[in-house]
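Researcher: We're teaching a course module on how sequence relates to structure. For the next exercise, students receive a sequence and then see the predicted structure as tokens, so they can try to spot secondary structure elements on their own. Here is the exercise chain.
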Amino acid sequence: MLLIGLTGGIGAGKSTVSSRLAELGATVIDADAIVRELQQPGTVVFSEMVERFGPGVVGPDGELDRAAVAEVVFTDETALADLGAIVHPRVHDEIEARIAAAQGTDDVVVLDVPLLVESGREDLAGTIVVDLDPEVAVDRLVTHRGFSVEDARNRIARQIERSERLARADFVIDNHGEPHDLEDEIRRAWRWIEELRDRPG
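Model: And here is the predicted structure for the students to work with:
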């Protein structure tokens, strides 16, 4: 197994990169997708979140209202810390179980984690950072994902500095161009991954 980290700031295009790497042959462990699985109604995480944040975080359909949660936690340090205490240990355990399941295989396993640099993980063969200027990210979040400017800026402000993320990168995917430019960058990254896999030892 070759374990590769993938990260990037919100709006940088990490999900697009992750999906394409899966199409190229990687096994992707997506932390955000695991979070969504663990927050389904009937789970321990869902119950604890409703208990902590109140019924206002549940939508009319009985599902978690993620926008309502974001509105609470991204303007309240204590609420954000409480959310982390509920969610992060369970997500960590699930990620580790999926990595363990891939041990002993020849798979390229891409660990897609927004807070990868903050986690200080030491067992990666390499780390890919999808890079985008924060101001461009704000514009894309507002234009393509329906964020308000305030919400986009709040979320970016909660993340580590772009320079710190880049300092931890073994490979950088530049996403300032057009979609076809990103495709070229992803294929370049895949070639880099294959070179890592082919290195002796």
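Model: If you want an answer key for the exercise: The first strand starts at residue 2 and ends at 8. The domain at 1-26+107-201 is CATH 3.40.50.300 (Rossmann fold).
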